Amino acid sequence: MQQFLEVFSELKGKKLYLTGESTNADIANYIYENPTLLDLSLQGIWISDPSISWDVVQEEIPAVDFMNKYAGLFSFNQTFMSHLEEKAVTCNYTGYMDKYETIEFAQGCDVWDDIFNNALIINPAFDIYRIWDTYPILWDADENLEEAIHAPVDTEWSECSNINVFPNGDNSLPPALTVLPSVIEKNQRTVIVHGLADFILIANGTRIAIQNVWWDGLQGFQTPIADDSFIVDGVGAYGTMHSERGLTYYEVALSGHMIPQFAPVAAFQIMQYLMGFRDTP
Length: 281
Fold this sequence. Notes:
11 helices; alpha/beta; 2 domains; two-stranded antiparallel ribbon; Rossmann fold; globular
């Protein structure tokens, strides 16, 4: 960001709204925690399908419920589904959404990998970022865009790197347990968004993570999230929405991990709210 401001110096002092997706949501939270390092006026943050808690919370606990919800897409046989159900009961994952208890992760409870590996056997093109996709999305390089943003034009760009960006692992604590509470309290508006068709990080896991966050003296949301509560102008119900104490949470129907790509109409309205162009979510 500091290098970006050196190139585009006319943006210094401007209002900044940070967005981050997946593991980038971690980075966005930590940037927001260090506002004096940037000559910008931080206003709000949007983290989309974020990795904000432990994998057991956002992958393992909700995995079997997610599989059951989309059983027709996974196409597992009844024997394997029964195996997963028994494993979920043994690992105390069944009914967890109704409890929000202390997180405990026992050995042999990696049901997410079981589901993923077997889904690939049935459908080699299975996409964890949106489970009904059957082929990859191609990324077309645009030399005019590369030149406009001062990106090297002799580089082969791709939508997402195949190289492990954390070759030595990432030992930092999840933001839900560290910086997220203070980010919400400092912000004018904080938005968390999750696509309901995302399997790499599952919406119910994000709900659990939020319910274990303390901000403004209270833990999690104090009232339930209502069904069909996210209303998109000119469209109607497009998932769920809930807002309390400066944090607004959306779940977007028919969307996978990359919400602006999969549900642009919903993403545009969410961005309008984040930036103050609309008073209500």
